[in-house]
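Q: What changes when adenosine-5'-diphosphate is included in the input?
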Amino acid sequence: MSDESTHDLEQSNEQLKRLVELSITLNSTLEPDDLLQLIISTAADLLDCEAASILLYDEKQPRLYFAAATGSDPTKLAEVPVPIEGSLAGIIFRTKRSMVLNDAEQDPRHYSLVSEHLQFRVKTLLGIPMLIKDRVMGVIEAVNKRDGIFTERDETLLTVISSHAAIAINNAHLLATTKQALKNVKEADQLKSNFLALASHELRTPLGIIIGYASFLREDAKGETSEHAQHVLNAALQMRSLVEDMTNLTMLETEGQMIIKYQKVAIQDILKSAYDEIRQLAAAKAQRIIFAFDEEPIMVHLDPDKTSSAFVNLLNNAIRFSPEGGAITVGATQQGERVMAWVKDHGIGISSDKLPKIFDAFYQVESINTRHYRGMGIGLTISKGLIEAQGGKIWAESEGEDQGSIFKVVFSKT
Ligand code: ADP
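A: The predicted holo structure follows.
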């Protein structure tokens, strides 16, 4: 093999190595400025030219702008206008075709304004469109080959670099957009939490007054007026329970706000106290509550109030989502070092695709437009938060629509 072809082969090998390195680094870098710098310095090195630059498309203006260039101040560069009509980069961008100019100053298409701005004489130029599928994102240019003219091999090399660059820049752009969207969602979520905290706090005082005076009125008044006062009282108590739910939810969302007061208690006592809170609701729908546990106390180490609140929500749901006259079972059993408690109903059931979602805040299986079960979609979120804050687990099981549901809760005994 002649010296020349050995040299050629070595050069090709070296170029291939650099391309592979570039591709690996591009895949592991998502910082847009680092990406651009790496691309143009590799391009200038591999093509052995004085400068390389990346021009990206700004659709708002619309125009091209220098996103990066070797040896130039990036902020100054960004100010240099590169019109779509009347610049070499613009032609490459519009035609989506590469361009080789080995005598740029003599070429009628040469547009010197950009070079003047940069105080840079363009003698030879190779430009490649940066394409993602059919969409052109910008142009990559190599300027002034040091030794001779730009060849077909240079064009192939820059085309490979350009397609890698287009993918990497597009990924970085997608990541930035996703990050921004996530930030917006977080901000909106924070606003929602602030609103809930404020609303639940501000509603508490007037509600307390309504409940207080409605109770007085019910006691003092006679006949129909006392009955009316009872209606006002019932409605206000219902509203207070909604406000309490809102307060509990904001408390769960603010880490460290929940104080757990552990006690040694019988799980049966917790379930019975939860039942006491909802017995009237069950009676109003002629539903029977069946206790399925032994009288022998199953002792657990839990916060009785918080656990009871969690079960009140489960029972409340069992009542609301079951027909009149049905039966609801509340059970508990010891399983080695663990205790399982459950609430089982024979109501509307939950289809398997909805089961994982029902514990999400504000999620309701029923569409908001057709719903007739009311509620805010936060009861289960609160129950889950209260149970998990004590190291427990909660989940739902159902054979599907109209097959009833069972909500299971597991705690370790200690
Ligand atoms: P809410 O009951 O106020 O809508 P929850 O967080 O308590 O909010 O429940 C979320 C959703 O889960 C309910 O809207 C309902 O679609 C479904 N769900 C909860 N409990 C049951 C149940 N026992 N049977 C059928 N569906 C239920």
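Observations recorded in class: The pocket of adenosine-5'-diphosphate is lined by residues 313, 317-318, 321, 345, 347-350, 358, 363-366, 375-381, 405 (CB under 6 Å).
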